[in-house]
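Protein modeling request. Please complete all fields; requests missing the sequence field cannot be processed.
Requester role: graduate student
Desired output: 3D structure, token encoding
Chains: 1
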Amino acid sequence: MKSILIFSLLLASSLANAEGHHHTGMVMDEKGMIMNDNPDRLPRDCTKLSETVDITIHAGQQYATKFNGKMFAFDKQEWNVKPCAKINITFINDDQIRHQLMIHGLPGYLYPDGMFHLELNGAGKLQASLILPSQKKTYLVHCELPQHMEKGMKAQLKVDGGDGDLPSIPGISAAVNADDYPVDWTHTNLAILLLCVLAGSALPLLILKLR
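Delivered output (211 residues):
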């Protein structure tokens, strides 16, 4: 009897791994994860959809090059939709690095923990939908992996123009704590800098003489 039970558990586990894990509000496989996909449930304050919007969001290091001091970014930093809009999101990771797309502050009765979540474990694509309430609001869109948001992977989604800009959105709003790289200009540091400049200037002349 014990052997049959163990065999049944192993078989169930194998089937789950083959088909991907499906829990309440979550679909996950080796490529990534979707949490709280909502293609059809209306928020309580919406009697019908106002519009359906298709949005493609890219994530990757190349999108951060236009922002000084940033390492990761989305290809856009802001989207604006109507109240009670349905958004079909295509999330594309152009890196071999794991990235997430998370939207916070959504109503908990529709989205557990108030969150919509897409995650890719490397280059790839995911698609999911959400329906927004009628409230005029600005939602945070970001990657929650350690330091990814701080290094630039942060944006905002506005409903009906939003209720203001969130802080530290690259290219849109000022940082709460601006990047600061102070240099301690001691006599020793100045001497080292001068020595490096002189050495760099003399090196081409030395190479010419050796030729």
